[in-house]
Inverse folding.
């Protein structure tokens, strides 16, 4: 949304501005690789004037919402695959020129968000992903690649490296390479039984999809969650027990919010924390402990109490902790939560109303407007993000100012 970044080499850094997690085409052309630690490419950043931005998840989430709103009229159903990628079901639009249809979609998204996009069209998800990659790399497609045409599909697949095929990991790509399978086209022609023997049913389904046999329809209803986690690397190492407790309390508070937003409860909680394993010259320690939740709950205060108790059991003084997290398992729908024998229904209802009030206030006035005292307010563990873009669309003080001269 920052037009000053257009056509300039730009990278986005991970939490704590540690390494590269996204690159503009200009940055890729300069040899910046995914995962490059920023301190190792500092000279290249200065030499080429590469712009660096910290991750800004609030902004990304709002832009995603705007992209989905722009996309809605152009598809029957939408499956959100990630923050920057969606699968569209174009059933019912077949009577249109789909290439032109998708060009209009790209224009709408550009108008509403200033974000350039590419679209891949195919009879299966795998072919649509492959088409999208082709649309990005080959200017002949002008941003929209349609692989429904067999001749175009064959042209693209014969030139598409096997390692770049969606779902092919480095290990599988190596095994396929040893068999002489080095392109998407050669993988498409692999016998199904051989594919299953090499990479189980997953590779077999991938071969089927490359042949135009649909293995997965667009999932409009998300599959039920089996687990949930809130983890963070700290902005600076933590050496104090109460600072670690405060961080764990914040993570548990957030985990409860996520549970309630999905109308779920958890039956098991796990807490972990560890030192920097990439600095072996320093004292190392890692802890991981779990316990059941009885009754199952989505109450943040109950999650905090359980998580703090786990930390008490395994905390060790004398170490500098750099990352911690909380994981929730055995998730079930709130309405299916099994009651316990001595449960106080009145108290449970009051706690539910309390959590609803907290969520409402934090939703209206900003996350962490209301926090538990155990979390603290200084938050020395706060993630470092010194190069974050302004929250153009979600914070009043960050709104761009427009002026006109007479």
């Amino acid at each position: 949304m920052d037009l000053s970044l257009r056509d300039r080499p730009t990278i986005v850094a991970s939490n704590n501005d540690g390494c590269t997690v996204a690159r503009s085409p200009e940055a890729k052309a300069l040899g910046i690789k995914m995962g490059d630690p920023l301190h190792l490419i500092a000279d290249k950043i200065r030499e080429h004037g590469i712009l660096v931005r910290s991750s800004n998840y609030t902004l990304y989430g709002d832009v995603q919402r705007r992209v989905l709103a722009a996309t809605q009229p152009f598809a029957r159903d939408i499956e959100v695959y990630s923050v920057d990628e969606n699968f569209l079901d174009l059933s019912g639009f077949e009577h249109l020129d789909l290439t032109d249809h998708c060009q209009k979609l790209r224009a709408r998204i550009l108008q509403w968000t200033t974000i350039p996009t590419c679209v891949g069209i195919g009879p299966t998800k795998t072919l649509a992903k492959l088409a999208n990659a082709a649309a990005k790399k080959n200017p002949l497609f002008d941003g929209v690649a349609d692989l429904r045409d067999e001749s175009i599909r064959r042209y693209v697949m014969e030139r598409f490296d096997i390692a770049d095929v969606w779902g092919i990991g480095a290990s599988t790509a190596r095994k396929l390479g040893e068999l002489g399978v080095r392109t998407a086209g050669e993988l498409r022609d692999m016998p199904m039984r051989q594919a299953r023997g090499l990479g189980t049913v997953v590779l077999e389904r991938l071969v089927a999809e490359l042949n135009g046999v649909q293995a997965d329809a667009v999932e409009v209803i998300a599959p039920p969650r089996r687990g949930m986690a809130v983890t963070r690397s700290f902005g600076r190492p933590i050496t104090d027990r109460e600072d670690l407790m405060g961080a764990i309390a914040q993570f548990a508070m957030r985990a409860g919010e996520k549970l309630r937003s999905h109308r779920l409860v958890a039956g098991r909680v796990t807490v972990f924390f560890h030192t920097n394993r990439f600095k072996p010259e320093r004292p190392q320690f890692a802890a991981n402990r779990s316990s059941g939740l009885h009754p199952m709950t989505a109450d943040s205060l109950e999650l905090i109490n359980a998580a703090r108790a786990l930390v008490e059991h395994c905390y060790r003084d004398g170490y500098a902790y750099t990352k911690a997290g909380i994981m929730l398992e055995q998730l079930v729908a709130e309405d299916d939560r099994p009651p316990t024998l001595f449960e106080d229904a009145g108290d449970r209802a009051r706690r539910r109303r309390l959590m609803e009030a907290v969520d409402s206030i934090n939703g209206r006035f900003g996350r962490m407007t209301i926090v538990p005292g155990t979390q603290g307010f200084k938050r020395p563990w706060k993630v470092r993000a010194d190069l974050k873009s302004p929250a153009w669309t979600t914070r009043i003080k960050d709104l761009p100012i427009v002026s006109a001269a007479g």
